[in-house]
What we know:
mainly alpha, 98% helix, BLOC1S1, Biogenesis of lysosome-related organelles complex 1 subunit 1
Amino acid sequence: xxxxxxxxxxxxxxxxRRNNEQLRKEATQAVGELTDCLADTLNERVSSIxxxxxxxxxxxxxxxxxxxxxxxxxxxxxxxxDGVNSALKELGDVQNWAEVIERDMREIAMTLEFVxxxx
Length: 119
């Protein structure tokens, strides 16, 4: 009876060990599959982030080029505006000169009229 109990106990222990080993293998396999799945997901997200980063860098380069072009064009417009302002200033100077000449000529004409009438 005691030997039968020992034998039954040993058999149960052996079944438990086999069951534990099987469970350990299944757990190891499940952890491996989970790790692979997580790594794949992480790789996809990292790849997506790098792609987005490259797109942002390309857009930043395009924006920088457009900003430089805009700045150059703005400088050209400012130079043109300075030229127009100078031309308008010169026209104002010419108009002022013409008004001074006209006033002087009227004074000369009035003086000549006065002299001519006085004779």
